[in-house]
Amino acid sequence: ETGVTQTPRHLVMGMTNKKSLKCEQHLGHNAMYWYKQSAKKPLELMFVYSLEERVENNSVPSRFSPECPNSSHLFLHLHTLQPEDSALYLCASSQEAGDNEQFFGPGTRLTVL
Amino acid sequence: GQNIDQPTEMTATEGAIVQINCTYQTSGFNGLFWYQQHAGEAPTFLSYNVLDGLEEKGRFSSFLSRSKGYSYLLLKELQMKDSASYLCAVRNAGNNRKLIWGLGTSLAVNP
Known about the structure:
Number of strands of chain B: 11
Number of helices of chain B: 0
Oligomer: heterodimer
Helix content of chain B: under 10%
Structural class of chain A: mainly beta
Largest interface: A-B, 21 and 20 residues
Strand content of chain A: over 45%
Distance between the termini of chain A: 32 Å
């Protein structure tokens, strides 16, 4: 595998379910990001991790819980989501936090019923 | 507030030149980025401008005027594969170096 990978690519869940999104980067980067991309809205930065430490949390509801066990892996744990949380969730990485170029994964298309 | 404006949609003809504009109002500035995103795929980095002027990279060029809060992405010799969404993003200055993103411009290249 090369670049940034995300699993699953598609996820449908009920409002009472608990699920997790996984991201893995094979680039040796130190920073990883979670973004939310909704229709007719700009990309929204959710979380930033630098060397496994969370350095940014943009007022994201607590029903989204990130986890970064090491610099190559990033998870987004989901529980009691709302239909308006349906979106494309993109993971990205960069050499250092705030670097010029971010490398994005293909995203997880999430539908909350 | 912080705002990035770019046209929602554009169309162009294969082989032609198209210019996609982006204007911004942000609380600080530490660089402007252009990303390309094909439908259903990840955004990919195209260009970065931090100083005024034109940056050329093959068929794509990006221009920045910091005094005007303005940038454009110029695509030459358009190909069908250039049909995609083009995202403009501005990086804040200081410790908070996060990117502020525009909505993207959906470009359709017709034969």
